[in-house]
Amino acid sequence: MGDADRVTAVEVAVFAPLPKRLTYRWPRHLGDPATAIRLLVPLGATQRLAVVERVLRLPASEADGYKMVLDRLDAAPLLPAGYRRWRERLADYYLALPGEGWEAVLAWAADEGRRRFRMVDGEQLAAAMPELAAVFKGSRRPLTQATIRSRLACHGSFWLLRQAEQRGWVEEVVEPLFQPDGMVSGSAPVTLNEAQQEAVERLTAARGGFRSHLLFGCTGSGKTEVYIRAAEQVIAGGGQVLILVPEIGLTPMWLARVARRLGRVGVWHSALKPRARHALRHRLARVDAVVGTRSALFLPLPRLGMVVVDEEHDASFKQQDGLCFSARDMAVLLAQQLAIPVVLGSATPSVESWHQAQRGRYALLTLPDRVGGGSRVATRIVDMRGERGVLSPPLLAALKQTKAAGKQSILYLNRRGYAPALHCTACGAVPTCRHCAARLTLHRRRGELRCHLCGWKRRASDRCDGCGEQALLPLGAGTERLGADLEAAIPGLRVARFDRDAVTTMAQQVALLQAFDRGEIDCLIGTQMVVKGHHFPGVTLIGVVQADLGLNLPDLRAAERWWQQLTQVIGRAGRGADAGLTLLQSYQPDHPWLRQLGDAFAPSVLRQELAMRREMAAPPFARWVRVVFSAQREARARKAAEALRDAADSLSGIEVSGPIPCAIERINRRYRFELLLKDAGRTRLPWALRPLLDRLPVPSGVRRKVDVDPMDMM
Ligand code: ADP
Ligand code: ZN
């Protein structure tokens, strides 16, 4: 059969939860097909986005059964070759459905409809594409792609626009890049100390090949300075640098500091407005560095020369819904694919990364000392047993003394709202969410009881639903109550709250931190938002309001995470010339972990934790996959989980436990069951699970979430 009898078709991954790739015929007017470009295809009665994975030549008779591609969004592949190989491995590893594996990675290119275009050469456009010219003619202002599509009745409007753009007849209107303003204090270039110097030299020597590094530097040891110097070298050599930070790490001050030093810096996070996204997307080839949260990993930087993952232990690098990927692990994989160095930095490394450094897989770079030595910090444990209030007398006394000395304090309590629960003193009932197996948090100022899992809320009242008595009282304390109690206990103390409820915009955050920096606030109360990277020399007192909070959760990583957070918190103290004090209020004052907080204990804590994980045959010594089934009908979720369990029982070398109800049994009206698969050899999972998942259809009404290397076990 000659080639003339064949027609062009494409195999695509559709952006829909389909287990298989689909084939469509390729219409000639869309130019030459290519892989890794997005299309619009018909699916049932709807139109969906899809990505080309393969271009096929099929016998005409065979192709007859396929539907036709409707439109083409991209002229050229959205990902360069290295990124494409990496994406494939990522999708394989996380057991992604075909569409899911692209959707997550191309999220930066979403909001297609909101890109704006204007006409540059009306005459040429009118001659070649009169229908498009007519659309522009009526309007003087730039038009969004969505508008152009709805005025152009014909299919293929994206492609028409792409061609007009390529010929220079229309152009995209892009905003200037977001530039952090100049809120930088003490930014005179510093002279690196010896340890910093060595770290920079080793990173610089690693250029031009793949190498993973763990930069283990205590709090305030100048890690950021190391990233910046190493990045400067990469940029001077014509390369680009990607710096990933945790969700709470993208503080305006930190950004301004990095941006001032690295030149053209693009900022990326999930709350970015579409116009700011387009601005960066448009300039990916021209920026020197991108700083962003986990999804910044997917921005294809054509000259990427180094990846930095700051605070690599942070749980926010793991995506918890959709494609549950770890941005930290995938950063290492990306560096490997692109043959470039990667550096993971932390004062409190994850057990995983520490293990890799111990076995020589990651080069260990150590910054053992605080810059400038820091000052002496004493740590004391306050026994809260028998204490009725939230603030103990020793903590109140220390707060007063600190104020009298003209110094500042930070109180840490990782709980939002006024109280994490209420209880009825008459019948003992605890108000719970209508849709989740969760207690409702009291937000007193708003007069609301709110569910922090699903967002459901109702008016707060002191009348119990169960017995009708007016006997509901708050149980425990959140930051809101802490603030109120503190203001009542120490009149005249200037208190500010720093959490997601009190601070909702970047501008508020800047204003608050600047006010604190200027000494206009005596005491900052915060959730984990206060943990990251702030450097306040005026702070001499840190109070951890409930030091055992989160220590005893039924989660493999609870203790590790608790230790990381508290060590980061107390690392905020003693950054100035004056001696510091840390007070840990605890109901379990004899807990051995309480005596191991602080930078000096990191290696021994990590050693103990690793020994325990080895004994339990838990990660990082084994590989785990957690599969959660959820449905509004309890029996359906359980049955679906059992079906996978039965199938997985046949896999050799893999231990299957469950199904059991999740620790949080119901979220958002859905009952949840989990199955945990464990591979002690780390060679068979997650890949061995793929054929089972492909074979077992997900029953209607059931959702199946596959989490490889789960971080959150609740
Ligand atoms: P880390 O990231 O390890 O917490 P930073 O890089 O933020 O530490 O450094 C803490 C502070 O010390 C910053 O204000 C920084 O400008 C300053 N600093 C860093 N390195 C030096 C140095 N070699 N000499 C003097 N100051 C430094
Ligand atoms: Zn809820």
Low-confidence stretches: none
Q: In which order are the strands of the major sheet placed?
A: 11-12-10-13-14-9-15
CATH superfamily of the largest domain: P-loop containing nucleotide triphosphate hydrolases
Q: Give the helix/strand class.
A: alpha/beta
Number of helices: 20
CATH class of the largest domain, please? Alpha Beta
Let me know the largest β-sheet. Answer: 7 strands, parallel
Taking all Cα atoms into account, the compactness measure Rg is 28 Å
Q: Averaging pLDDT over every residue, what do you get?
A: 91
Give a short synopsis of this structure.
29% of the residues lie in helices and 24% in strands.
Could you describe the 3D structure shown?
The protein has 714 residues and is an alpha/beta fold. It folds into 5 domains: 3-109, GIY-YIG endonuclease (3-Layer(aba) Sandwich); 112-172; 194-367, P-loop containing nucleotide triphosphate hydrolases (Rossmann fold, 3-Layer(aba) Sandwich), CATH 3.40.50.300; 377-418 and 477-611, Rossmann fold (3-Layer(aba) Sandwich); 623-708, Alpha-Beta Plaits (2-Layer Sandwich), CATH 3.30.70.600. It is 29% helix and 24% strand. The protein contains 20 helices and 30 strands. The strands form 7 sheets. The chain has a 7-stranded parallel β-sheet with strand order 11-12-10-13-14-9-15, sandwiched between helices. Strands 16-26-25-17-24-23 form a 6-stranded parallel β-sheet, with helices on both faces. The chain has a 5-stranded antiparallel β-sheet with strand order 2-1-4-3-5. A hairpin with a 6-residue loop joins strand 20 and strand 21. Helix 4 (122-128) packs across helix 5 (130-137) and helix 8 runs parallel beside helix 9. The longest helix has 15 residues, at 602-616. 44% of the residues are buried. The structure holds adenosine-5'-diphosphate and zinc ion. The site of zinc ion (ZN) has 8 residues, from loops.
